[in-house]
Amino acid sequence: MNKKEKLKCPLCNVKFIPRTFYPEEATFTSSNGGLLSGFNGYISSSGVKPPEVILSSWITYCPGCNFVLRFAKEIVKKEKIQSQSLATKDIKEKYNNYYFGFPFEDYSQYLSGITEKVKANIKKSLNGIDLNIWESMYEIEDKFKLLVRFYANLEKYCDAQLPNNNGEDLSSKIKLLKLSSDLEKLLLELNEIRKHTIQGNYELSSDDKENVNHAVVNFTLSLIEKHVKPIVNSKKLKSQYNYADIKDLNSEIKVFLYGYLNGLFNHGKSANHQIKTFLDQILVN
């Protein structure tokens, strides 16, 4: 696709990408010779033939000053869209099979394009985390086994991140990871519970089991945050993609990450709440 132009408002001189163009008025010639008119650019009647559509003008507005811009129909070039997988005869002759191409960039296409770039950067960054060792734990239903496996992986992670502190106990290493205060406190408490449980003089309560789930999810999210947060930093995104509304871009990123993380964690409503809270924290407009 050829690079499209940005619109420039003649009133305030702001360059922008239009969110949409509205047909100010459309007149359709029906098969019986009558006229139909509409403002939404689409009529589903089988008697309407797209080649006979007459448009008086297309309008959009400047997001900076709300000035309304109108374009004469001569600017619009009608192009028929044909599916590569369908024969021409299989394509119904309806108005929605036609695209009125402007020389100006379309906001939805622009947003979709930059969203794909951000998603690709996120995926590339997450490849730097060995999530396989954490993903493998989520199928463990026995909470005691999950607790033991999690802390075994956590100790390996600490040794890799803190090579100069391998001689210290796990609690000391956890304190050196610079985690959030709540997560650090939870990991330290569960570490003590783990020791007592292994020794056979303690049995996990229902609250302990729930906390194990919280610890697994939150610690993995903290790893992901280290890799994702620099990419989705709002100031950075605004400077890179200054024609996009950061709220729109964050919304697209949130949908992508929510789907990705839901596929990673399988702990029901509790995990869903943690994921939503996590996304709200790292995706600040």
Secondary-structure blueprint of this entry?
Elements: E1 7-8, E2 15-16, E3 22-23, E4 26-29, E5 35-38, E6 54-55, E7 57-61, E8 68-72, E9 77-80, E10 98-101, H1 107-126, H2 132-135, H3 143-161, H4 170-175, H5 181-198, H6 206-228, H7 234-240, H8 246-264, H9 268-282
Antiparallel strand pairs: 1-2, 3-7, 4-5, 4-6, 7-8, 9-10
Helix pairs in contact: 1-8, 3-5, 3-6, 5-6, 6-9, 8-9
Could you describe the 3D structure shown?
The chain is of the alpha+beta class. The strands form four sheets. The protein has a three-stranded antiparallel β-sheet, with no helix packed on it. Strands 5-4-6 form a three-stranded antiparallel β-sheet, with no helix packed on it. It is built from nine helices and ten strands. Helix 3 (143-161) packs across helix 5 (181-198), helix 3 runs parallel beside helix 6 and helix 5 (181-198) packs across helix 6. Strand 7 and strand 8 form a beta hairpin. It folds into two domains: 7-105, no CATH class; 111-282, no CATH class.
% residues in beta strands:
5-15%
The number of strands is 10
Average predicted local confidence, pLDDT: 76
The termini sit apart by 30 Å
Radius of gyration: 28 Å
Which structural class should the secondary elements be placed in? alpha+beta
Please mark out the parts with pLDDT under 50 across 5 or more consecutive residues, or reply none: 39-53, 74-100
Shape: elongated
Q: Give me the number of helical elements.
A: 9
Q: N-to-C SSE series?
A: EEEEEEEEEEHHHHHHHHH
The main sheet comes to: 3 strands, antiparallel
Instruction: Give the count of structural domains.
Output: 2
Which strand order does the major sheet show?
A: 3-7-8
State the helical fraction.
Answer: 40-55%
